[in-house]
């Protein structure tokens, strides 16, 4: 324990529910079954070190009950874990107070029913900036073993004072040692009487109403992966009055809640899947893979995409089994990266499934022209290497790599081992999907691409889906900074272009190299807006000077974010990363589109669509874009532009439509026609 910290006595009381005081909590000396850990510590800057008995809520601390934990994994060579809980208060990520529970020996299902007080002047804590962190540990003679943790904002804990928290480690769900594995969950509750009077009171848990249908959505990944599911869920709730449970990474819980507040019908709930994709893609190996231009690496990334999420399999099964007891599920709707897991959950829990596929190139076909990875132009002088790269764009190669990824002998998870855990027969995912004719809904307009002839009859294209409104923010307007830039550019007779890579980690130096080159070498007078994160990589002095000069002249603007629905209507051409939503929004303006950036998986697909439709050049990696960017700008903005001519002839759906109704109706039709649970014979 660091300097400035003390260890006061009287920080916990163990008692049964019926013995809990009604009005005021007192905290006598520890009982015989006391923890073999310090009771509490109050770090420097956190306030007074001691709290008088009965002073809880008046500068004396926040009372939290540690109830029990389920499916605690064994961390010892013999016997079960000797579990205890550490509760920490964090303000802006800084630990200000810590308190420990007692130890429960040799149990996979430890029960505490123990009140702890997190010390400090809680009335001064900000509900929005304070978090409560629960850590589960196993006590050993020499070194204690960390098991997992859960973090919840104080605002959320106050809103609903009794919680069951999924424990995670390195982002992934903590799972039990027994087979089949189950998620480890900690149940805690907040003592309302210890809360300052200025805090809002907890909201009673709503009783479940009656809904025509209950849909369980499985999605993991980035915000772009989750967002279409939120749009679909809102449509199902608002238009049909359905109950929708979205099971995804806890990072997206606030995003889902913010887009569910204004519903007048139906209901959307959130459940955690475990995992944190945003953390994973920050690792060095993920960054290396994302920056690679190799088709071999791209195919491997696609092959390993579902294997990365296998740790969520037992969590999905647990949630569906629990929900079936209170609100039976009519349909599981899964992302393409969870197809094998959804098939397992469907069979294990006897619930029908359907896919909601945002990347159609992942659906296999024997057609040799149907590629899982779109090739891009590279500066590769070796024909042997080129031939090898080309061979890795086929679904035959992808199937082999998926077999290695999904049954990796060096991993604790594999689709075969998971199916065995749950007593299911072995099965090939896509062979089973096609044999059982399991529905796959692709939220793209018919004609976007030519579907392979060997796809099943229930692989259907609907319409592009967008999430608009409902998030509590202003929609359809531009910031004064952007509006002024556009107004001044038009007054100066300049054409307008926008460049954006969304959340893709494209270095600012690489972006500026292309942006400056286009603005300084184009035969036309152009103004360019870059929308996206501003990374802190080093910019050469010469490039930085040119950038500032262009900004001073009103020809270049960098902003962190913008409403694309409003911004894109003002643009004359687009340089984008190739994500589905951004690309279709651009195509709907009937203007030229160039796709560049890191070009990961579906981004290559959409770059290929733009080139095939004649509205832009072949997709090229951001490293090569400076060699073609000026030609694109000149060709796109000339009065006789072939790109513009072809773009104006194409239809990408109703520009004012968000596509939600069409997709909702597609799932309603599937349920009316009948969808059966997966059953492997």
From TrEMBL:
Query: Could you list the residue ranges that cross the membrane?
Result: none
Q: Which Gene3D superfamilies does the record associate with it?
A: C2 domain, Glycogen Phosphorylase B
> Which InterPro entries does the record associate with it?
C2_dom, C2_domain_sf, Glycosyltransferase_28
Concerning Pfam families, the annotation shows: C2
Stretch list, region Disordered:
1-42
User: C2 domain: which residues?
Assistant: 45-167
- What is the name of the protein in this document? C2 domain-containing protein
Q: What is the lineage of its organism?
A: Eukaryota, Sar, Alveolata, Dinophyceae, Suessiales
């Amino acid at each position: 324990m660091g300097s400035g910290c003390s260890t006061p006595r009287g920080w916990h009381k163990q008692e049964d529910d019926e013995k809990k005081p009604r009005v005021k909590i007192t905290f006598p000396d520890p009982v015989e079954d006391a923890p073999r850990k310090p009771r509490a510590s109050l770090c420097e800057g956190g306030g007074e070190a001691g709290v008088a008995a009965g002073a809880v809520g008046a500068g004396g601390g926040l009372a939290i009950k540690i109830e029990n934990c389920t499916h605690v994994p064994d961390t010892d060579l013999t016997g079960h874990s000797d579990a205890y809980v550490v509760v920490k208060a964090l303000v802006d990520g800084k630990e200000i107070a810590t308190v420990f529970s007692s130890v429960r020996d040799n149990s996979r299902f430890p029960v505490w029913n123990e009140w702890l007080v997190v010390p400090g002047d809680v009335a001064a804590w900000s509900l929005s900036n304070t978090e409560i962190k629960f850590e589960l540990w196993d006590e050993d003679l020499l070194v204690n073993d960390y098991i997992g943790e859960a973090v919840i904002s104080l605002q959320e804990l106050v809103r609903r004072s009794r919680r069951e928290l999924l424990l995670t480690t390195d982002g992934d769900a903590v799972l039990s040692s027994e087979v089949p594995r189950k998620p480890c969950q900690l149940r805690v509750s907040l003592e309302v009487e210890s809360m300052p009077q200025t805090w809002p009171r907890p909201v009673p848990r709503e009783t479940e109403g009656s809904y025509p249908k209950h849909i369980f959505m499985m999605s993991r990944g980035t915000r772009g992966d989750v967002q279409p599911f939120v749009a679909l869920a809102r449509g199902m709730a608002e238009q049909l009055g359905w109950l929708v449970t979205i099971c995804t990474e806890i990072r997206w819980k606030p995003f889902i809640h913010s887009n569910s507040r204004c519903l007048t019908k139906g209901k959307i709930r959130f459940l955690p899947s475990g995992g944190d994709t945003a953390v994973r893609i920050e690792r060095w190996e993920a960054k290396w893979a994302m920056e690679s231009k190799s088709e071999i690496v791209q195919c491997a990334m696609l092959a390993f995409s579902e294997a990365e999420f296998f740790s969520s399999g037992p969590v999905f099964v647990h949630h569906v089994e629990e929900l079936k007891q209170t609100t039976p599920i009519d349909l599981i709707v899964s992302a393409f990266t969870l197809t094998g897991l959804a098939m397992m959950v469907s069979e294990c829990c006897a619930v029908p499934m359907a896919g909601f596929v945002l990347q159609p190139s992942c659906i296999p076909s024997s057609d040799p022209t149907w590629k899982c990875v779109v090739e891009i132009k590279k500066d590769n002088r070796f024909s042997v290497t080129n031939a090898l790269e080309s061979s890795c764009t086929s679904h035959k190669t992808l199937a082999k790599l998926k077999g290695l990824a999904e049954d990796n002998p060096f991993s604790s998870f594999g689709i075969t081992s998971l199916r065995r855990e749950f007593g299911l027969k072995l099965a090939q995912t896509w062979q089973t999907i096609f044999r059982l004719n399991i529905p796959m809904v692709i939220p793209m307009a018919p004609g976007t691409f030519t579907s392979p002839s060997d796809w099943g009859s229930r692989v259907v294209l609907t319409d592009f889906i967008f999430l608009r409104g409902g998030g509590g923010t202003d929609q359809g307007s531009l910031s004064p900074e952007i509006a002024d830039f556009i107004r001044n550019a038009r007054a100066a007779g300049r054409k307008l272009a926008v460049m954006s890579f969304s959340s893709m980690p494209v270095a600012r130096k690489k972006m500026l190299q292309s942006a400056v080159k286009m603005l300084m070498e184009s035969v036309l007078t152009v103004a360019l807006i870059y929308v996206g994160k501003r990374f802190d990589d080093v910019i050469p002095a010469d490039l930085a000077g040119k950038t500032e000069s262009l900004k001073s002249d009103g020809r270049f603007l960098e902003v962190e974010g913008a409403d694309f629905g409003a911004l894109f209507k003002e643009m004359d051409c687009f340089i984008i990363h190739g994500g589905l939503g951004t690309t279709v929004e651009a195509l709907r303006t009937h203007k030229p589109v160039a796709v560049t950036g890191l070009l990961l998986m579906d981004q290559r697909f959409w770059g290929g669509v733009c080139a095939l439709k004649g509205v832009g050049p072949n997709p090229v990696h951001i490293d090569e874009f400076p060699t073609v960017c000026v030609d694109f700008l000149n060709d796109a903005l000339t009065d006789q532009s072939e790109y513009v001519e072809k773009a104006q002839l194409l239809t990408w759906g109703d520009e004012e439509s968000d596509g939600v109704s069409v997709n909702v109706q597609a799932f309603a039709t599937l349920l009316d026609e009948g969808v059966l649970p997966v059953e492997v014979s």
